[in-house]
Records
---
Amino acid sequence: MLDAVVVGAGPNGLTAAVELARRGFSVALFEAKSTVGGGARTEELTLPGFRHDPCSAAHPLGVNSPAFRALPLERYGLQWLHAGLPMAHPFPDGTAAVLSRSVAETAASFGPRDAGAYRRLVGPFLPHWDTLVRDFMSLPLTALPRDPVTLARFGLAGLPPSTWLLRRFKDERAKALFAGLVAHVIAPLNGLATGAIGLVFALAAHARGWPVPRGGSQAISDALAAYLKDLGGAVHTDYEVKRLDDLPPARAYVFDTSPTALARIAGFGDHYRGYRYGPSVFKIDYALDGPVPWTAPEARAATTVQVGASQAEISTALRAASREGRAPGRPFMITVQPGVVDPTRAPEGKQVFWAYGHVPNGWSGDLTDAMERQLERFAPGFRDRVLARAVSGPAELAAHNANYVGGDIACGAASGLQLLLRPRLSLFPYHTPHPAVFICSSATPPGPGVHGMSGHNAAKAVWRRLRQT
Ligand SMILES: Cc1cc2nc3c(=O)[nH]c(=O)nc-3n(C[C@H](O)[C@H](O)[C@H](O)COP(=O)(O)OP(=O)(O)OC[C@H]3O[C@@H](n4cnc5c(N)ncnc54)[C@H](O)[C@@H]3O)c2cc1C
């Protein structure tokens, strides 16, 4: 009998398996697709030699993750590559605000009226970032806070809607950049705790940047899988689990799946009936005949570029996708250009380019034209550089990964109480109705992103049980 079986080789499933194996437990992992990685994969989606990330591409949460930082992933080939700027937010007039490693450079890019407000916003948290990120990502109860005072202070700043926090800024440069940070979880700006999201992304940039892995996001998954194998864990791919009977006997089962799939597989009936899935994205992977011709020079130096002209434009786009059930006319877009630092991703002189805009869950239209019109505002001549595109709407995303229900890349709406308390209102979110079955996907805290912390936290719950029995 195995100690633990993990279902799903996304970053959380892989991390859970590694954490258990490194504590001496026997572990086998089963993945439906032919490669490991889930939302951290790299594939030739367009033309030969162009290596695209179909899902995650930039890793502020990965490089700052307490779980990843405690694992020897560099020894297994993971190399974080940092651009001159982690992120730039260009404007139609050819200027840009930036999120730099330096607080001073970031504040200066907002202009004199907001520089001080920004420094006062992030200043108190930065010296405590390592304990804060660990405390924040271990909520609700997996570890006692190491620095409850800073955590409480962070809660006071971050728990109200981001629109409150945005009132600290007077000009559009800071407002648009910060609204864009909040939009990374696809929740309306006036939602509960959305201020915390913006703050986490900003602090992550100042602390350790927003790097891309050399060779693409697959490098994170491959490093985790290689380490797992070295620890004696077994990895089985092309193995979709439909029932618990499909799995070998084990003392614990850990699911890196959606709550809906887990309920179906384990026979939990309507245990997760109240769980809500959120909006989706429309994703385009481009093969380009050279770099994106951004007007703003800062945008040419950053790996991640946010595309949205103002807080109002970003807010309208988010509301359209998440509340009004329609695609935005002017999508807010997150784009990543790994070629700024990684020459291995495309043939010489060419580039891969990654971009998505938000659309409603299950939406079946084509956002390509709206996205490219939006890009042309900030990078005139963009369309002339396109050699090929691979397009994924909600249906394609859901087919690529069963966790993206209706194309929801967060595996559950990151809004309302469900942003913090997921998949149910519980202090033990990794537990399920069956004492030997656990859930570790991004449907559990701390939620979406490639950080492995849901897997890390769930593994703690598992090893406590294994030691008891
Ligand atoms: C387009 C897009 C862009 C993104 N950009 C970023 C980004 O830049 N940075 C970032 O940090 N995050 C990003 N994300 C989010 C990130 O990819 C996810 O939050 C993260 O991968 C979640 O990890 P996970 O382990 O919980 O689940 P997943 O990565 O979704 O992995 C789940 C795995 O379980 C497998 N599985 C599911 N059901 C079964 C079954 N029944 N049997 C066997 N296997 C099963 C799936 O095939 C999959 O491999 C993005 C996601 C998408 C789609």
---
Amino acid sequence: MAQESLLASIGGYYSEKVREHGATPLGVDWSCVPTQEMRFVQLLKLCDFSEDFSLNDVGCGYGALLQFLKRRYRRRQIQYFGTDLSDGMIAAASRKWRSHPSARFSLASQGLQISDYSVASGIFNVKLNGANEAWDAIIRNSLQRMRDASRKGFAVNFLSAPLNPESGIAELYFAEPEHWAGYCERQLNTEVEIVRGYGLKEFTLLMRHPG
Ligand SMILES: C[S@@+](CC[C@H](N)C(=O)[O-])C[C@H]1O[C@@H](n2cnc3c(N)ncnc32)[C@H](O)[C@@H]1O
């Protein structure tokens, strides 16, 4: 129950952001397009672009990843499924992409589609006043759901822990790469690649199913 009400608050937080700033990076709490897309570049290292595939974009916001894919990989057929906690985001995404034939958007409560890959950019960052144990449980559930819905692999990103823990912002969640990489290897039976050093105080985990 604590988790449900925390997730409802997070959904409300992001609905307010998109109401205020519209379908723009600020509307999903990012500072600008270049860093938003820098995250997509890291997450998409998971995917084999030599063939067509299907993709869950978990926490899709207004569908900026779809825009990026259409520009960068115009020739590829990518079946795109965006899900988000925030009804405001799903409304903004559905408006923006209403004439795009191969994109579908739905609320996270409806679950993920079984797809080749699942990626999530920025879903673990804002925890508001959530206790760390509740947030850890939400992360574990999200990773499990992404694993179960992905035939080939999944990828997520996290904010890196600051050198001085006291300089962290209480409403944000910071992580150590080895912690969640170890969890995905041991509990979810995946091969994990840690990507870091791409100019943001963050890291990305690429999880591939063995064999
Ligand atoms: C920082 S924004 C990034 C949006 C988009 N991924 C992008 O990079 O443009 C994070 C998004 O994830 C959504 N979100 C947060 N936690 C989520 C969860 N557990 N499941 C699904 N969506 C979530 C939020 O509503 C928000 O739209």
